[in-house]
Amino acid sequence: MSVGIDDISFYTSNYFLDLKSLADVHRIDKEKFYQGIGQEKMGIVAADEDVVTMAANAALPVLEGVDPETISTLLFATETGIDQSKAGGVFVHGLLGLPSRCRVVELKQACYSATAAIQMACALVAREPEKKVLVLASDIARYDLNSSGEATQGCGAVAILISANPRLVEIQPHSGHYTEDVMDFWRPNYRSTALVDGKYSTKIYLKALKQAWLHYQEITSTEFESLDYLCYHLPFTRMAEKAQTQMARINKCDRDAEALKAQVEPSLHYNRLIGNSYTASMYVGLVSLLENAGTDLAGKQIGFFSYGSGCVAEFFTGRVVEGYQRYLHRERHQHLLAERTELSYAQYLELYNFQHPTDGGEYTFPEQTTGRFRLGGMNQHKRLYCQR
To answer: Which residues belong to the active site?
Structure first.
């Protein structure tokens, strides 16, 4: 019996800022963003959106035709938590109308926790093959204005249904791990924006990639040349190029630069347009690969490198299942991206500076999102969700 990804879908806000606008304000060449970090646009959340509404909207296509009674668990991965006690997934559970006999828990470890959720989900399904597990990864990447990280902001959510005999990707049972206590990126409870040491974080990312890969090789004896494609964690898309170069060097690979690029390029399309989505980013990359490869991927081996600052990393592999194309949501995803509204820089600042009130009063928020689920307001420190 195989276990893995039976369905996958992503969601992002209906607003975006073209990084050309940011470059114009800072009086620099837009190619510093377009080519330098590989980003063109970044998703910007509406006033009535958060990680809960994005996750619920991402899950809608995945749950079509699924008996909700078969979902035993909802695992919610995020580093943009909305409550220090209650899991964001419990709100999603209610919005989606999932059965009461469904456990829910939130996981946190920077951008890595969605991978932990998937590995936990695979183990749960292996124990109860008749059940399914819904994994949700949802995040809003925010940095200080005029900081080096501002151009790498973004937002998005991914919904992943884990089942026995999956229709999309079989997850292989072994993985390589690496953990080290470092301070390359962090966000204390009292801050709404993250702190990052960019150059150091890139260095640690590449170190963790090497160590997780070497651990994976020890366990499986897998050769780099046996991997057809790779999906890397994507704080910005040029990071995949750095990671691929590192892997080629470690493995003394003699493939030329174009061949190495071809292994990762299809996974980058959507992230260029969405920006960083933290826990969701590598899996947005997987959706992009499945939908934009331009060739039949059935039987192909994909290497996955998941990285969460601080840091925890994991390398694992999956095999694409025959007939996977029938179960993709390509048209829905492309329509979602095509129908977004571009913001001016002034409009971006307005949304960036919008803060949810903290005084416990009664508030309603403007209807801005086009998604089905929205954050309608707050009252007595309670978040009030509704449907459009």
So the answer is: 79, 111, 233
